[in-house]
Amino acid sequence: MAKIIGCIGTSHVPTIALAYDRGRQEDPAWKPLFDGYKPVAQWLEDKKADVLVFIYNDHATTFFFDMYPTFALGVGERFPIADEGAGLRNLPQIKGDVDLQAHIAESLVNDEFDLTIFQNKPIDHGCASPLPLLWKHEPDWPGAIVPIAVNVLQYPLPTPRRCYKLGQAIRRAVESYPKDLNVVIVGTGGLSHQIHGERTGFNNEEWDLEFLELLQNNPQKLLDMTHADYVRLGGAESVEQIMWLAMRGAMPEKINKIHQNYYLATTTAMTVVLFEGDEVSAGADQATAAAAAANA
């Protein structure tokens, strides 16, 4: 059976992709961000992750406001990475797993989530910006992506609680898939930022850190908040944080933080955080202790 082995929350700032493509990983302004992803990439490699379920939003690249779905899931063997004005990126096309994608789609619909299904569509920086920081990709990605796009652009948006329930439904879908796969849930967006209007450049570090603590230990409080609460505390675009709640909903009640990097150097608080389920971490601790005892 497929199993969820952990979850990742990550910013998807487009400038991360630009800096990566231009080889700026060692630049003083960017090094703290890129170094912050290295433990997560190593964890994914060590855990032999087969699939990343990527919960992201499309920035009017694949979908536009004349037809913008609330929830959309991609099904296909490959997805091109969108050219968003800086040219085609030197990355392999995103790899899919049609059987798994179709299974999750059917399971979510049977769980009363009315999905839009897309094929052969480009995927923008919502997914493609952090992806190469997480997975080695030469000559190809080591596993498959299940892309799930969430509307956080055009109101009405799904509520925080609805996104959390989506995560719970994703977990049921994954755990009902008969093939043995190690699956990681990735929630993207945020944290605090606003890129238009009177509050352009707004950030709230205090709220960002509180959000991360609540996400781990008291997500129910985050579910009770309105979109207006998120916008007031973190800026207009920080409403993307509801996609982190979908990630959290796919995890058990108790989770352990394995790694966190918070870097506020631009208009967006760029963050990556890694969690494991409490039972996974406990099992790993037991295995470590057993190995130490055997070597003693």
Automatic annotation (TrEMBL):
<dbReference type="InterPro" id="IPR004183">
    <property type="entry name" value="Xdiol_dOase_suB"/>
</dbReference>
<keyword id="KW-0560">Oxidoreductase</keyword>
<dbReference type="Pfam" id="PF02900">
    <property type="entry name" value="LigB"/>
</dbReference>
<dbReference type="GO" id="GO:0008198">
    <property type="term" value="F:ferrous iron binding"/>
</dbReference>
<dbReference type="InterPro" id="IPR034939">
    <property type="entry name" value="Gallate_Doxase_N"/>
</dbReference>
<keyword id="KW-0223">Dioxygenase</keyword>
<protein>
    <submittedName>
        <fullName>Gallate dioxygenase</fullName>
        <ecNumber>1.13.11.57</ecNumber>
    </submittedName>
</protein>
<feature type="domain" description="Extradiol ring-cleavage dioxygenase class III enzyme subunit B">
    <location>
        <begin position="7"/>
        <end position="273"/>
    </location>
</feature>
<dbReference type="GO" id="GO:0036238">
    <property type="term" value="F:gallate dioxygenase activity"/>
</dbReference>
